[in-house]
Request: fold
Amino acid sequence: MAETPPPPPVRRRTFSATTLPGFAAVAVTVFVALYLPIATLVVFSFNAANSMSDWGGFSLRWYEAAWANRAVQEAAGRSLLIATIASLASTVLATLAALGTTRQGPFRGRMAIWGAINTPLMVPEIVTGVALLILFGTVRAWTGYQGLGYLVLAHTAFCIPFAYLPIRARLERMDRLLELAAADLYASPRRAFLRITLPLLMPGVLAGAMLAFVISLDDVIITEFVKSAGQDTLPTYMLGQFRRTLTPEVNAIATALLGLTLVLLTAFFLITRRRG
Amino acid sequence: MRALDGVTLAIGRGEFFTLLGPSGCGKTTLLRCIAGFETPDSGRILLDGRDITQDPPHRRRVNTVFQSYALFPPSDRRPDIAFGLEMLGRPRAEVQERVARMLALVQLEALADRRPEALSGGQQQRVALARALAPQPAVLLLDEPLSALDRKLRREMQSELKRLQTETGITFVFVTHDQEEALAMSDRVGVMAEGRLLQVGTPRDIYDRPATRFVADFIGETNFLPAMAGDGLVRLRSGEVVAASPLAGPVTVAIRPEQIRLVPAEEEGVLAATLEGATYLGTDSLLRLRLRDGSSVIARLPSVPGTDAAPPPGSLVGLRPVPGAVQVLAE
Reply:
C-alpha cells in the first residue's frame, strides 16, 4: 500500500478573486450585459403595442399571433422533428463511440479517435455549413432527393460530440467491478451490458440526448446552408423575419424557444448532477 | 517483475484454503486468474480435471465475493441474489426458493428489501456472500471480504464463514493479509510473497515449522538468532548448542516468544540471558532479554495472579525453549 503523503502546510491566506478591487462592479456589469437583453426580449414579448421599444401594456397577442401563424407552426414542427431524430440518432452513435473508446483499454490511435469525435466542436460552423452545402448540392443533383434528410443528417453529425461528452464522462466514472461481478455470476458480455452497464449508463445517455436536442433546436448557421426552400426551422424562420418588418411576434417565438431550452438544460443538469 | 511466478497448487474439494501474504504479493492476481478476470501468460488452471484457463468468467462454475462487495445498484436485494441463478436460466420457482434459502443461510431474511446504502457493512457482506453462494459454485473465491469490517464484526464473520463453508461443502479460496484470520479459519494456508508460493500447509505446519525466514516473520512473532551449523549441531555465536541439524554453514534460528520458558540460570543446558526489561500486558508479560552473544530475545510469559512473571531487570536468567520450538532456517 502506498504511503499517504504528509498534508501540505496550511496556508492562512489563499488567493481569492473576490478581494480584488472592483470585483463587485465587474460582476454586476457582466450579469447585466448577459441578462438585460434577454430580459428585455422576454418583457417585450408581452407588449400590447406593435413595438419592440415602446411599452403599450401587457398582452398575450403576439403569442396568439405566433401560435396561429402557419409558417411558425410548420417551422416549429420541423425543428422538433429534426431535433428528435437527430438527438436519438446521434445519441446511439455517441454511445457506441463512447463504449468503443473507453472500454477497450488504451489502443493505438485512441487519441486520434477522441480528436476526430470532438473536432466538430472546434471547426467553425460556417466551414461545416459551406462544406455540407457543396456536398449535399452534388448529392441532390445526382439523386433528385429534396426532403428533410439532409437537415437530419447534418444535425445528427454535429450533435454527436455533444452527446458523446456526458456519456463518456459517465462511462469513465463507472465502476467496472460491477461488470466483472455480473460476468462472475454467469452473465455473458451481452447480458452484463444490458442488465448492468446500460442501466448505469442511462443518466449519461439521457443527458447526452438532451444536450443534442438543445443543440439541434438552436442551430442556425449549418441549417441555413443545408435547408432547401420551404425547409425553415424555427431559428432560421426568425432570422428570415429580420428582413421584413419586425414585430414582437419574434420576441414571443424567441421566448418560447428560450423556455424550452431552459427546461431541457435544467433537466440535463439535474440528471448529470445525480451520481450513480 | 512477474505478478505470479511458478505457482503450483492443488486445492482439494470442499477445502477451506487461504492465500496469505502482504499486499502486492500476487494473491489477488492468483484469485483473479481462477475467476477468469485475468489470463495467465503461461500455465494452466484445472477445475475438476478440466482445463478452464481460456474460459471466460461467465463459463466458470466459480463465484467471487469481492473486497468492496460490488453489489448491484437496484433497490431490492433479491435481484442481486437471484442474478446468478437467472443467468443460468433456472426456473422461476427454483430461483425464488433458493433466494429465500440463501437469505436464511446468511441470516438476512428481514433485511432483503433494503437499498445497498441502507445496509450496514456486515449486512452488505452477507448479501455478497448469499449472491455468490446461490448458484452453488464448485469454488467460492473470497477476496479480503472482511477487511472493511471492524474488529468485532470481523471475528463474528470469521466463524460465520467457517460455518457456511461446512454447511455448503463448497471449496473456499480465501485471500487475506491477516495471519490471524488465516490461521483461525483455514484447513490449509498458502503463504505468498513477490508472486511466489513460499509454503503450503495446515495452520499448525505454517506456524510451527515455517519453511523460510519470511514465513516465520510474517506469521506470528519470532525471535531470529544468527547461528552456525556443523557436525550435525547448531550453535549460537556464543557457542551454546540449540538444535540438531544436518545443515552446515551459517543458519538462522527461529524461536517463538511464547515457546520460551524462564528457568534458573544455573540449570543444565539453558541459554544464559540478562533481563533488560518487562512489559505487563494483562494476559501475559513481554520480557526483553539479551543473550551472551549480544542478540536480543523477546519472551512472552503467561500471567499468574499475584506474582510477577519477571524477576527484576538486570537479573541473570536461563532460557529454555519448549521441545520443538527451535526452528533452523537455511540462510
Summary: Chain B has two domains: 16-213, 221-330.
